Q: What sequence folds into this?
């Protein structure tokens, strides 16, 4: 097919301007086109097309589209819309496109807006962000199902008594695809953003943070990899209870899996159970206190589903938890969550504890803005922001062991002293 006669540089800006206006009016020939600062070739070509003279010094050529359409019909027996289609690309009907986008947007948002979760602040906050960003992208990409799936997952995992599921089972049950919630998939990113809003835990910027968010809602990778480290915690119950009691008598650490806690239920009657974050603390307690160490759990980072189940078993018989973690952003977030979920008592997590230890040799906090509040002692967040340093558990292990030994004045021997 020969090239259209108007597909030439001298007409290019006129036709481009006409296209924008026609598309804006949904294919109707209304309004006008303009060519600012026209070249002599453009002015001559447009004058010849329209039969209208423009003065050489005119700054902008303004062309009513109705006049351009009539001129084209006289000279070429085809209207402006026909010419624009022939020159290409095909015309867009922007009003129709906008109506279709709005229809898709309503389709995207309807399941989220109709969810019973709208009664919760965390959900409304998450949805507000989603509407501003993700919903627009989902609409443009015509992925109308993704937000509905995210809402279905959120309804499932935030129910009063959600069933314990692997991430793969949850994905299959709610999205029909076992891989839909693999790390960093779009659906997993959507859901984890909402769960972070709900819990106050850090966003899923790492595999550990993502695991914490899932496991805080009963979703696990598998029940063998979800573990909690235990020292000095006797328990009643066949199998696991017997193993824990034996390990406590010997003063040796014991790894407990979620699978064991589910298949071999235990009863714990300890009145107070201490919790630390770093396994180095529990290891040192085993070395220095041995069988004399009172009950101590270690989360080994973010608390796992196994930890939550064991903590619930402790509290079921009136036991209390006291929690210590690193005095950094993650440790503060974990303390807040332990208090909210298990009514844990902060253990050496005050401003006085922090300021008594911190100095310029300690590692810098990556960002004090990420600390969040410390409602059990508001002065702690203020002190951490002021000093900008993290105090990790390893540096206060002697203080923690004195508490465990029950003698604040005790000087506990290290391994080198025992030799």
A:
């Amino acid at each position: 097919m020969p090239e259209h006669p108007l597909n030439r540089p001298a007409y290019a800006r006129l036709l481009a301007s006409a296209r924008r206006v026609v598309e804006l009016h949904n294919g109707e020939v209304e309004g006008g086109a303009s060519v600012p600062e026209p070249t002599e070739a453009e002015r001559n070509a447009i004058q010849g097309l329209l039969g209208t003279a423009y003065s050489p010094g005119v700054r902008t050529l303004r062309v009513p589209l109705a006049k351009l359409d009539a001129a084209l019909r006289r000279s070429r027996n085809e209207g402006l819309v026909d010419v624009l289609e022939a020159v290409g690309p095909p015309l867009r009907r922007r009003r129709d496109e906008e109506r279709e986008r709005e229809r898709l947007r309503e389709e995207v948002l309807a399941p989220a807006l109709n969810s019973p979760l709208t009664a919760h602040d965390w959900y409304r906050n998450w949805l507000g962000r989603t509407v501003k960003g993700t919903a627009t992208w989902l609409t443009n990409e015509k992925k109308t199902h993704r937000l509905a799936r995210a809402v279905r997952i959120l309804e499932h995992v935030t129910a009063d008594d959600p069933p314990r599921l692997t991430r793969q089972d949850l994905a299959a049950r709610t999205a029909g695809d076992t891989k839909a919630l693999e790390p960093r998939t779009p659906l997993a990113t959507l859901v984890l953003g909402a769960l972070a809003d709900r819990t106050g835990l850090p966003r899923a910027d790492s595999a550990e943070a993502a695991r914490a968010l899932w496991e805080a809602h009963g979703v696990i990778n598998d029940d063998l990899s979800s573990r909690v480290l235990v020292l000095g915690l006797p328990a009643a119950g066949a199998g696991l209870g017997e193993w824990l009691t034996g390990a406590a008598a010997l003063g040796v650490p014991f790894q407990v899996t979620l699978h064991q806690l589910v298949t071999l239920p235990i009863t714990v009657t300890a009145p107070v159970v201490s919790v630390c974050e770093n396994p180095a603390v529990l290891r040192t307690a085993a070395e220095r206190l041995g069988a004399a160490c009172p009950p101590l759990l270690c989360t080994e980072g973010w608390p796992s589903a196994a930890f939550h189940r064991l903590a619930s078993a402790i509290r079921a018989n009136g036991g209390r938890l006291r929690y210590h973690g690193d005095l950094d952003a993650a440790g503060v977030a974990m303390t807040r969550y332990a208090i909210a979920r298990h009514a844990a008592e902060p253990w050496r997590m005050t401003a006085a504890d922090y300021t008594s230890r911190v100095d310029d040799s300690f590692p810098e906090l990556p960002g004090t803005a990420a600390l969040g509040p410390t409602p059990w002692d508001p002065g702690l967040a203020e002190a951490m922001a002021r000093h900008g340093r993290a105090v990790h558990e390893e540096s206060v292990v002697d203080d923690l062991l004195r508490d465990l030994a029950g003698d604040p004045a005790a000087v506990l021997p290290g391994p080198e002293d025992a030799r």
Notes: The beta strands are 32-36, 60-64, 165-166, 219-220, 227-231, 254-257, 272-276, 296-298, 320-323, 345-346. The chain has a mean pLDDT of 85. DSSP finds 20 helices and ten strands in the chain. Residues 94-113 form the longest helix (20 residues).
